[in-house]
Every structure is written in C-alpha cells, then in structure tokens.
Amino acid sequence: MRISDLSRRTGVPVATIKFYLREGLLPPGRPTGRNQAQYGEAHCRRLLFIRAMTGIGQLDLSTVLELLAAIEDGELSLPGLYQRTNRVVYPDLDSSKAIDDVAAERDEVDRFIDERGWRVGPDVPGRNRLAQVLAALRQLGCDCQVDFFQPYAQLAEEYAERELSLLPRDEEIERAAAVARAVLLDVALAALRGIAQEHLVNQRFGDTAPPSGTVEPIPPISPRRPSTGAANGGHAARNAGPPVEVPRRPRRIR
Amino acid sequence: MRISDLSRRTGVPVATIKFYLREGLLPPGRPTGRNQAQYGEAHCRRLLFIRAMTGIGQLDLSTVLELLAAIEDGELSLPGLYQRTNRVVYPDLDSSKAIDDVAAERDEVDRFIDERGWRVGPDVPGRNRLAQVLAALRQLGCDCQVDFFQPYAQLAEEYAERELSLLPRDEEIERAAAVARAVLLDVALAALRGIAQEHLVNQRFGDTAPPSGTVEPIPPISPRRPSTGAANGGHAARNAGPPVEVPRRPRRIR
C-alpha cells in the first residue's frame, strides 16, 4: 500500500510516518519510483505498536526505539525480552532523586520475594523500586509494611500467568505483542485502581459524582470524536497548574 | 534550620532547593538577614514530597506543582483531591495518538464498571484509558476481554479500602499523604507485576536468572550506596537504544 493508505489504515498522520521513517523507527518501504514506496502489513503492525506505546503507554520515542531493538534482537530470548522491557520501561530511579538509605526496606522486600518463592535475580529493578516506595511512604508519615502487598503479589503472579496465555499464535508478532501487553497492562491496572479509588472515596467522604439515580447517560462515542472526550475533567485539571517549563530531571539543571 | 540543614535532612542538594524556591514549589523561609533564612518542618515535608513525586513517581515538576496546588486548595474536598490527582497524574491521552474508534470497548468498560456497582462519573479518566488499552491489544493481535480484569478490579477495590485506612492521623499532612500514596502505590504495584512476570517467564521459558542453588547473595546496601544499585541491568538496557532526541509528543513536530 502507499503511505497515504498506511496512514488511513493506522490513523497515524503521513507527516508522522515520514518522521518515523527518518528516525529509523519504521523500516523503509519497497521503492516504486522517485518519492514513491510500497508498504506492507509489517509496516502497519509496527505503526500500531509505536502508536500504542507512545499514545497509550506514554513512552517517549527513544524508549520505543529500545523496545523495537529488543523485539528484533534475535539473540534475545523471550525471558530476556521481558527483562529488557522491564528495565527499559522502568529504568533505574535517578539516584540523585532516590532515597539514599533504603537498606532496611530492601531487606524487607528481599525477604518478601523469597517467601513468595519468586526466583528473580538480585538486580530485578522492582526490588529497589519497591524499597524506595516503602521508604518514601514512611518518610511521608504513613507506616506501610511490605506485607501490605501480599494479596497483590498473589494476584500479580496469576496475571503474569494469564498474560502469557494471551500470546498470539503468530510467531512473528509474538514478541511485539508480549512487549505491548507488558506496557499496556500496567496502564490498564493503574486506570482500574484509580476508578476503584474514586468510587470508594466518593462513597466514604461524600459523593462528588452525580447520584446514581440521576447519572447522566454516557454520550455515545462517534468514530471521529477524540477518544479522550472533551467532557473529561482531566484536561482542565491538567492545565490547572502554573506553566513551569523545566527539564524533567532537575539534576540536569543543577 | 538553615538551608544547609534542610538539604542534609532531606538529601535534596542546596542548588535544587534554591531552584524549588525560585519556581515556587517551596514557600520561602523566614528571613534572618541578607541571604539568610530559617526553614521548618513544613519545608522538610514539602521537599520529601517533591522528591518522592519526581524521583520515585517520575513526575515532572509542572505536574508536582499541580498536585501541590490541589493539596493546598482549601475549596477542594478530599474526594475532589483524589479526583484531581487522578487527572493530573493520568492526563487525557493525547487525542492525536489515541485510537479514534473505541466505541465498542468503551461500552464494554462502562458495562464492566456498572456491574461492579462502582459509582464514578462518566468522565473518570480510567474509562477511556481502559477502552484504549482494550482496543490497542486487539489491534496488536491479542483479543483480551474486559472480564480479564475482573479479579484485579475486585482487588483494586480492596486496596482502595486499605489505602484509605493508611491516612495518617495528622490532619495537616493528611492531604499530601493521600496524594503521595495514590502515586506511589501504582509505582509499587507495577514493580511487583514486573517481578512476578519475570519470575514466571523465567520458570516458563528457561531461566536467565542464576539457578536458586547458586543464587548470588544480594549485596548489603550501605547507606551511601545509590539505591538504584550499579548492579542493576536497567541502566545498561536504558542506554541500549540509539540516542534519538525527539520531543515526547511527535504531534509537536508535525
């Protein structure tokens, strides 16, 4: 298909496709003349993957490039691919921003993981991240024990189990699908946690949502309507704060 | 205390503290002479909050500013605070990157939420985000039904319940703590999911981690050692991809 068809099929604007081609996120098509090329299903899938990772997974393009490199790295086993994905999507915490002394929390986390019988290396990023969260919660005045996460750990294991069973049969797209799910699953779970929390807080502390009797019907979403919905309060909230243009990591500006 | 003590207490470098003061993330101290000011416990807590949100929560400073504004907004009820937090931390998906037609998936999600008896407004961001994830998974070749999330939804509700019970007694820091936990909890859960996944993938597809017989002992973390651990493979993986400096949202460069 031509680039215009590719754009129509994937919903990715032609200008963006050309940018991805320049940046090497998308392999070139088969030349069919000057400034003309044919693209195939592989290009389609690749574009949908990039779109899902950037648009829904909120990953930046350099991260997506790393994921693509891992997917295509023939040397990399499937376990290696999951490991790489974990480390690329959840990179080391900026050590200049992390809490220095999490020795006690790290011990707790390691014991917790051992007791679950999880066989993961000492370098699996989650160990330090979880220890950092525990330490931060304590610094902030909520004494949360690692056992707080016991029920979740159990379910997380079950989900990993079910998640693997979703692997599509098609070998060729299996690796991309595995990476995509690992990223999208966290987005979905965070979304659900937020919804459950709002429900419970409304229930507990007084309801800011319309009472169920008079719930306004959810407007049907027309294909053209941006999926983020103008009705969504998120946008207003997002622009609520003072516009401060600063680099993502203050470390850079020190 | 002086700014140097504040830095020692919180582990935030003086230069960063001064930057936060300039940007209004930190209220000024009590002047005690030219270029001299005294800071109190409130400054300490505020710095620890900012550090946790940027360092562990990986939020940028403008997002942290929005959270701080919400925490201090006396008009905002606790339910309102949770709602604001949800929308600030998980803003609308960039509509230019989202999937246009998620009508079917959105219907599924709405039905799912109704069946759970969750009373949340039609604009709670999670609805569209979850619909986007379902649509993306299908585009990518894995047909995942919303019921896939049934067990998680149940647990998410239990966690929201327990999470609220963690609210510290101290009224003054309650709101900041509520926001901090909402952000940090997702970090912790994602970390756990990643660990569980690596464990299971190792088990299922061959182990890349050292066999349990010969597991290398986890090195004790000395207080000075950066918590992100040089041993962590994440850093290598993070630098694996080609260095592409591009704006986070390709939309901007179109």
Distance between the termini of chain A: 50 Å
Outline the low-pLDDT stretches of chain A.
Answer: 209-254
Count of helix runs of chain A:
11
SSE order of chain A, as H and E? Answer: HHEEHHHHHHHHH
Shape of chain A: elongated
Helix-and-strand structural type of chain A:
mainly alpha
By DSSP, the count of extended strands of chain A is 2
Roughly what percent helix of chain A?
55-70%
Beta-strand residue percentage of chain A: under 5%
Please give the radius of gyration of chain A in angstroms: 22 Å
Tell me the major beta sheet of chain A.
Answer: 2 strands, antiparallel
Most extensive chain-chain interface: A-B, 163 and 164 residues
Oligomer status: homodimer
Strand order of the largest sheet of chain A: 1-2
Average pLDDT confidence of chain A is 76
Characteristics:
two-stranded antiparallel ribbon; MerR family transcriptional regulator (chains A, B); MerR_fam (chains A, B); 254 residues; mainly alpha; DNA-binding (chains A, B); DNA-binding transcription factor activity (chains A, B); homodimer; DNA binding (chains A, B); 11 helices
Q: What is the compact description of this entry?
A:
Chains A, B: Residues 224-243 have a biased composition (Low complexity). The structure is a homodimer of 254-residue chains. Chain A has 254 residues and is mainly α.
Question: What do you see in this structure?
Answer:
Chains A, B: This is MerR family transcriptional regulator. Chains A, B: Residues 204-254 are annotated as: Disordered. Chains A, B: Keywords: DNA-binding. The structure is a homodimer of 254-residue chains. Among the domains of chain A are: 1-54, Multidrug-efflux Transporter Regulator, Chain: A, Domain 2 (Orthogonal Bundle), CATH 1.10.1660; 92-156, no CATH class. The longest helix of chain A has 35 residues, at 171-205. A two-stranded antiparallel sheet of chain A has the order 1-2. The model of chain A is unreliable at 209-254 (pLDDT under 50). Chain A has eleven helices and two strands; from the N terminus they run ααββααααααααα. Helix content of chain A is 58%, strand content 3%. In chain A, helix 3 (41-56) runs parallel beside helix 9 (171-205) and helix 4 runs antiparallel to helix 5. The first copy, chain A, has helices at residues 3-10, 14-23, 41-56, 61-72, 78-89, 103-116, 125-139, 150-165, 171-205, 233-238, 250-253; strands at 30-33, 36-38. By secondary structure, chain A is mostly helical. The interface between A and B is large, with 163 and 164 residues.
